[in-house]
Target: Bifunctional purine biosynthesis protein PurH
Amino acid sequence: MMKRALISVYNKKNLFSFAKGLIDLGWEIISTGGTAKDLKAEGLKIIEIEEITKFPEILDGRVKTLNPYIHAGLLYKRDEEEHLETIKTLNINSIDMVVNNLYPFEETIKNPNSTQEEIIENIDIGGPSMIRAAAKNYKFVTAIVDPEDYEKVLDELNKKGDISLKTREYLACKVFSYTAYYDALISSYFNKLTKIKFPEKLTLALNRAQELRYGENPHQEAVLYKEVFDLPGSISSGKQLHGKQLSFNNFNDANGALEILKEFEEATVVAVKHTNPCGIGSGKNLIEAYKKAYECDKVSIFGGIIAVNREIDADVAEMINSIFIEVVMAPSFTEEALKILTQKKNIRLIQIDDINKNNYNALDYKKILGGLLVQDRNELLLKDEYKVVTKKQPTREEMEDLLFAWKAAKNIKSNGIIIAKDKATVGIGLGEVNRIWAAEKAIERGGYKVKGSVAASDGFFPFSDCVKALAEAGVTAIIQPGGSIRDEESIKEADKYGIAMVYTGIRHFKH
Model:
């Protein structure tokens, strides 16, 4: 019996040579609407879908393949007598292959000019039904959704006269991934339409962007998946200008650097190691900002990642090139800067056009074993106006440094303490299980530069010990959330040492 393939596609890449290849091998082609018209225009012999369904295409194409003659031809088991008898009695012909890719729902929602009616009309119904039916019955039927698989299928047919079960199983797997992705896009669209932030059933639509050399460690495999919509100002939307491929750790650290950078409007440089900052500096220009970030920790910045929010010129490039840096991210580079930086083969240079963008209305995801934690992205810096709770008021300069330190403290791992002076981090203590340890580490790393500085804590002080340690090291003002049952003890300690303390009323844990 002659084999039959049903072809109905939106994406017609490589279609005509594939269809001709099937016909040359003795296959009959069934087709619908525009696909049939295009195949005929190429001189190919086609069976119109109406000849099979014995029913016209209706409702502006909404109903054309939803028909027992189609689905029974796809779904019956070729090795089951009862199915064979039913097919014979009802005079239904076998359909042995479906070639289908769906209406362009993704392209439609990406187009800002698309109307809601256009979006709804691009929800495919018949296509998913056909390819799912074919994939379910992959033991007997071939389902193809990706034009890249045409060559593989034709090659097997030419060499073996049939398509192997292993290949049909592989193609079926692609079908169900494809329809799951398609439905996830539709689900996401309707969640946004109906303003449902945390749906009862969560589906995510992501595209595999690239394979990575390995994960956090060489024995771990890794890939990068990208969201459907490019996120302006993100590492995944950046354009790599130079250097070898980014690694798993590069992507993760780069994202950490960008999250911090987005807090600052002035010319700012953020240096990161293992997603944590080893130096942050803001200034009148990028040179000043870079020197401040570098001076915070001249050792740890080596082999780190740098993110800046101004164009990199030749002077800054020379400073960067004086040490080993893994990745540099900037909104742009001058030609002279690129000439200098590209002298080093392995440095990665990433241009991120909207690097300052920080208004995403996005969710934050954290994978745990057996589940996924989902929360709002932490975009809020201060809930209300800050409040001075000590006798001493901070000076204008101290207040500027306190807010600078508060932005930095928001983006380091808890428990975290930032010591800063002249809009530059001086000492950073982070990721400690005890807040006093974080304070002690920040003081130790800041050394003599702590005198005359300010400090920020991502969470409240449960005891007055941190205030005592910071004050005795030379800190003149502190910013913290407040909210501890022992707040009064910390306030009294600050008053004892004659330093200012500001409460923000909002904490910034980062785990």
User: Anything to note?
Assistant: Residues 165-193 form the longest helix (29 residues). The domain at 387-503 is CATH 3.40.140.20 (Cytidine Deaminase; domain 2).
